[in-house]
């Protein structure tokens, strides 16, 4: 702990100096007397100064949250000796803010007294929020001396991209052999009625279609479509991003990816992630709660790493990018290399849909408002619209999403253009 | 409430010299000093306030030396106490700016300020009384000796204060580090 004199101390000494100087100069006793309270304060500060010992315990309510979820920080302070005035401050990341009470506070503690200081924070963007560094200042009552120290008890809170509940998501064209929620064209055990055919040995009685049997005079059975799951691979563009910190197109893309992953995993599908950027990173398709956390952790780490090298998706193993998988590309389409990779996938027969995140609002948020910016934004929007139409004309399924609109509204556009029945895998 | 107290203290600080000598030069100094003090309070800046307070001290020195009236110890006491309270108050307000302060903290601070102001006022009364006693009791030829004793006392006091202020704070620091170590073990 480092003790130092404060500005107030310098101020007191200056004023006492002036008083004594003027007292000598004018020969008036009043000027010596007016210095008395300041001198008493200076002397009292030195005499009464004691190094008040204390112990602090720092706890955080959770280790994992989604964006904008509350995190409660509790700091327990137990004083050894009496502390006249203790100032505590815990700095926060610029992407987090105090939601309730404050991250700076003052306390007066008696000897052996214990107090609990709690406050609530919210992280506005995905990050690994570092907490546990508390700066402490022990003031003497007069404010003439201060002792400073820093307590480190590192805590890292993973702040995942927030998700929205999606009722409808793009249907995969092909299904996998495992049981799921999609009606497969393949016939077998299921709920959805399929063809009616003559009875064959091995068919169950409950499969008999009595209406057809009575009409045709021989036994007929109803076949049913299997319900199967699908593999979904979310392909995240980390080549380029625009927008203010915490609200970049990549942040928006990770939120959309997290929402899609949650929705597909809830429908018993396997979900994987490919981060296409300066580094090619992936999470192979899987399901379950642990896999959800793995995906969210990967989305948490996603960041733009600039490179001139275009990564080859052939490097991605087939178990990560299965040929039957539905690939959802999330990209602001700012870098041509991502579009080339996506087109390559579509040409190789992958079931590919591109969710083009509009960078306009994010880019405008990062720039000062002006009429020139308005004009540029309009021209950019027109050019981008025309370019996306060209891509659609080339057979690529692209839907543009303005982040100001609900994600589900953009995803509904995929639903209108895709067949109801998936192709058997 | 706290702003009102600060405003009253500034009025006391710049007003007392005007009571001693109501004249326009002192008035001009009072206005400048008051403006600086007000600026210091508004910005919660101790340096600006110190500049204003220094000007107020100069104003007071001019007033008492030009007026050349017998020493008024009550006025000196009021001036000194007001100056101390104003500096402490503004410094405290600056330190706790933007933070909600609990009643125990505020009570403890007010108690301390009043205690120091009381001791300071008592010291002024004691010094004034001592000076009056010396003046009445000691014969005129002993005045040089009394002045020499007083000068020596002032020198010793000044050296003591300087030593107290300049005393290396590292000893306290080491003590607190030891307490940190204890704290670390408790986690």
Give descriptors for this structure.
heterodimer, A: 425 residues, alpha/beta, 6-stranded mixed sheet, 10 helices, 18 strands, 30% helix, B: 187 residues, mainly alpha, 7 helices, 86% helix, disordered C terminus
Tell me what you see in this structure.
Chain A is α/β, with parallel strands linked by helices and 425 residues long. Chain A is built from 10 helices and 18 strands. Chain A has helices spanning 7-26, 29-33, 36-48, 210-216, 249-266, 289-301, 336-347, 360-365, 371-393, 407-417, and strands at 2-5, 54-60, 64-66, 70-79, 83-89, 96-100, 104-109, 114-123, 127-139, 145-160, 179-198, 220-228, 231-238, 270-277, 280-286, 326-331, 351-357, 397-401. In chain A, helix 5 (249-266) packs antiparallel against helix 6 (289-301). The termini of chain A are far apart. Chain B is mostly helical. Chain B is built from 7 helices and no strands. Chain B is globular and about 60 Å long. Classes of the chains: A alpha/beta (425), B mainly alpha (187). Chains A and B meet through strand 1, helix 1, helix 2, helix 3 and strand 2 of A and helix 3, helix 4, helix 5, helix 6 and helix 7 of B.
Structure, briefly:
Chain A has 425 residues and is of the alpha/beta class.
């Amino acid at each position: 702990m480092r003790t130092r004199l404060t500005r107030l101390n310098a101020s007191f000494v200056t004023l006492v100096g002036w008083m004594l100087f003027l007292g000598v100069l004018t020969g008036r006793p009043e000027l010596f007397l007016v210095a008395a309270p300041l001198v008493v304060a200076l002397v009292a500060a030195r005499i009464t100064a004691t190094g008040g010992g204390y112990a602090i315990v720092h706890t955080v309510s959770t280790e994992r949250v989604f964006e904008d979820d509350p995190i409660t920080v509790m700091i327990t302070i137990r004083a050894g000796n009496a502390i006249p005035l203790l100032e505590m401050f815990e700095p926060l990341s610029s992407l987090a803010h105090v939601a309730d009470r404050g991250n700076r506070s003052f306390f007066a503690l008696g000897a052996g007294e214990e107090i609990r200081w709690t406050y609530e924070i919210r992280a506005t963007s995905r990050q690994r929020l570092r907490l546990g560094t508390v700066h402490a200042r022990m003031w003497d009552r007069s404010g003439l001396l201060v002792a400073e120290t820093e307590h480190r008890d590192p805590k890292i809170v993973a702040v995942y991209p927030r998700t929205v509940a999606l009722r409808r998501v793009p249907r995969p064209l092909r299904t996998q052999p495992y049981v799921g929620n999609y009606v497969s064209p393949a016939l077998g055990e299921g709920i959805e009625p399929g063809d009616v055919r003559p009875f064959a040995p091995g068919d169950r009685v409950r499969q008999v279609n009595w209406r057809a049997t009575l009409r045709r005079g021989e036994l007929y059975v109803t076949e049913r479509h299997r319900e199967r799951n699908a593999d979904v691979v979310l392909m995240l563009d980390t080549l380029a991003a625009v927008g203010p910190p915490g609200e970049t197109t990549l942040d928006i893309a990770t939120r959309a990816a997290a929402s899609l992953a949650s929705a597909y995993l809830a429908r018993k599908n396997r979900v994987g992630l490919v981060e296409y950027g300066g580094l090619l990173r992936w999470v192979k398709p899987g399901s379950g709660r642990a896999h959800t956390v793995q995906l969210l952790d990967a989305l948490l780490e996603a960041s733009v790493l600039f490179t001139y090298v275009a990564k080859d998706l052939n490097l991605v193993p087939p178990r990560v990018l299965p040929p039957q998988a539905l690939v959802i590309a999330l990209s602001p389409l700012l870098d041509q290399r991502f579009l080339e990779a996506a087109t390559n996938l579509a040409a190789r027969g992958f079931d590919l849909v591109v969710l083009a995140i509009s960078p306009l609002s994010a880019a405008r948020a990062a720039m000062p408002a002006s009429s020139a910016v308005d004009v540029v934004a309009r021209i950019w929007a027109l050019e981008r619209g025309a370019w996306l139409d060209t891509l659609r004309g080339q057979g690529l399924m692209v839907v543009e999403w303005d982040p100001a609109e609900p994600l589900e509204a953009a995803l509904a556009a995929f639903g209108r253009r895709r067949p109801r029945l998936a192709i058997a895998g | 409430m706290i702003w009102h107290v600060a405003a009253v203290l500034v009025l006391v600080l710049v007003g007392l010299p005007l009571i001693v000598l109501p004249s326009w030069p002192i008035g001009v100094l009072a206005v400048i000093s008051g403006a600086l003090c007000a600026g210091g309070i508004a910005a919660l800046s101790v340096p600006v306030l110190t500049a204003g307070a220094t000007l107020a001290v100069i104003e007071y020195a001019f007033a008492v030396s030009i007026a050349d009236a017998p020493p008024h110890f009550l006025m000196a006491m009021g001036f000194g106490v007001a100056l101390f309270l104003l500096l402490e108050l503004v410094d405290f307000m600056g330190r706790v700016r933007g933070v909600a302060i609990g009643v125990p903290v505020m009570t403890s601070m007010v108690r301390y300020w009043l205690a120091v102001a009381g001791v300071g006022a008592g010291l002024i009364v004691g010094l004034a009384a001592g000076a009056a006693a010396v003046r009445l009791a000691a014969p005129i030829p002993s005045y040089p000796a009394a002045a020499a004793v007083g000068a020596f006392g002032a020198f010793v006091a000044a050296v003591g204060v300087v030593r107290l202020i300049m005393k290396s704070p590292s000893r306290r620091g080491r003590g607190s580090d030891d307490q940190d170590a204890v704290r670390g073990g408790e986690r």
